[in-house]
Amino acid sequence: MKCVVCKGELKKATTSEFKDFQNRIIFVRDIPCHKCSECGEFVFSLKVGVRVEEIIDTLKESLTAEIAVVQYSLTEIKAVQYSETVAA
Ligand SMILES: [Zn+2]
User: Fold this and answer.
1) Is residue 2 part of a domain?
2) How many domains in the chain?
């Protein structure tokens, strides 16, 4: 697998993503991805991106704290069901 930006070598890594909603922040940790060893670009698969959006959407509904931090892996089963629905 090669980097789309510089054609450098991609290595397995994890990253974090956050979304800011007015006065609330949702932070998703330990998202599996690939990181370019040359330019540092992070690459997600489409499936992972869809899951991250689903995690954030779900939290957005129920969130009462100003800042929520969630581990990507803990919500994986629910998110997998979502992506299968999308594929069908
Ligand atoms: Zn690169």
Assistant:
1) no
2) 1
Q: For 16-30, write each residue's pLDDT tens digit.
A: 999 998 788 888 989
pLDDT tens digits along 40-77: 999 888 989 998 998 888 888 777 778 888 888 865 44
Q: Rounded to the nearest whole angstrom, what is the distance from the C-alpha of residue 56 to the centroid of ligand 1? A: 27
What's the 72 CA to ligand 1 centre distance in angstroms? 24
Rounded Cα gap, residues 70 and 26, in angstroms: 8
Q: How far apart are CA 17 and CA 49, in angstroms?
A: 10
Predicted TM-score (pTM) of the model is 0.72
Q: Which residue's structure tokens are 């919500």?
A: 75
Q: Output the CA 61–ligand 1 centroid distance in Å.
A: 36
Full residue range of the structural domain in which residue 70 is found: 17-31+45-87
